[in-house]
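Bump. Still looking for glycine dehydrogenase (aminomethyl-transferring) structure tokens.
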Amino acid sequence: MSMNTQGRPTAAVETDGQSTAFESFSGHRGLRLAEPLIFEMDREDTTGVDVEEVGDFDLEIAGLGRDSKIGCPGLPEPDVVRHYTRLSRKNYGIDMGPFPLGSCTMKHNPRLNEKMARLPGFGDIHPLQPISTVQGALELMETLSHWILELTGTPAVALSPKAGAHGELCGVMAIRAALEARGDAREVILCPESAHGTNPATAAFCGYKVKSIPAKDNGRVDIEALKQSLDDTVAAVMVTNPNTCGLFEDEVREIADAVHAAGAFFYCDGANFNAIVGKARPGDLGVDAMHLNLHKTFSTPHGGGGPGSGPVVFSDALKDYVPLPYVVKTADGLTLKEHADDKDPSMGRLVAFHGQMGMYVRALSYMMSHGSDGLKQASEDAVLSANYILASLQDVMTASYEGPCMHEALFDDRFLKDTGVTTLDFAKAMIDEGYHPMTMYFPLVVHGAMLIEPTESESKNNLDQFIRSMRGLVEEAKSGNVARFSGAPYFAPMGRLDETQAARKPVLKYEAAE
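Sorry for the wait, here they are.
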């Protein structure tokens, strides 16, 4: 039996010379349990709760009453619990192992945060409660705002945006409001080539034309190209710092000064703020607006892509245009300013209700439990972890840029040249090693990109194990063992799926078999 350096089998376990790769009668494979969809297990006569029969009554909803089954599956409670437990075991999450997705910052979510978010005063709150009954929640929001403003070095914050991209929208809308207030009809926003895709999308959504700015050979913004593009048509520049190549834009002050001299605004994508918390304040760098992904920097859970909180901070030039509502102090206590008046140039209401209280509680719990020194150390450890990955792999993989990185290490596919193995193949083989793949093919400025962000959450032992696995895969690829990669993953519940077909013809609704 083939064993790896940690004494784990790398091939099917054999007993008395015979492979155990037979088909079971149940369809299960040991603890890898197989079962149909929950809808396929449905029985009309079974349910986990007893519901009384509904008597005769008249529907008074203008003929909109349901005339068919509601479509919810009926199962006994144990079957429901087992179904979702089995599904969870087929998934990968941060509680199972490292999540090296670059540009995503998949860090540990402390259980203290969850305990605080479930306190009845926060967990049971309703957006339509009278202000007098939510003074504690408003105080928490004000405290969270204070921490955010201190960490970013800015004078104003909007808590209401529901995610990072929504925060971008908020920031660009504030820029548009400021330009309109001074009668300046600018129509262009500049975005670096390595920008997150949401940056140009946000600019276009707000009605701006997007112009791309190239990068230099060192992976940073070409400031001379930027300066040549600045004129009286440019409304703003959107720069991610640290950028998507995992590098700090060391000319950021010069960028800000050039943008401001042209009468434009400097929007900073704060997706990578986790790398510089306590080390550098965006406000001190000349940033006018920046969103913060609470699910990246401040440990609130990602959920289905991020369950909704992307606060935006503003400079003095934009602080009057923050969206409603926001917390204000009055003689009678805290309240929400809900409506703009003639003296208030606010962009108006951005969302129906203020935001995700659960995310505010979790983020503030993380901040206060760490303290300012702990938040700084977390950023330092995140950068240290990424550079440890970079230093440990750059002799066998090809680093895209020379020198140290910030919070994530960027490699390209040059080390796979002539091996017959692609970036996708390599990433799929990582699943067989028990790891979620890193971010692939992004940023687009690097061919066959592999972007690895370990975060501060991983111990040196975990990083060493990850490094050993990566080095082992590189050795296998260079040895010509293409079969190990071309069909990977072999150990995942469903194997390699046709992702192209799934993207082009997704099946989004269950249809019962005829």
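Confidence is low (pLDDT under 50) at residues 1-20.

Edit: fixed formatting.
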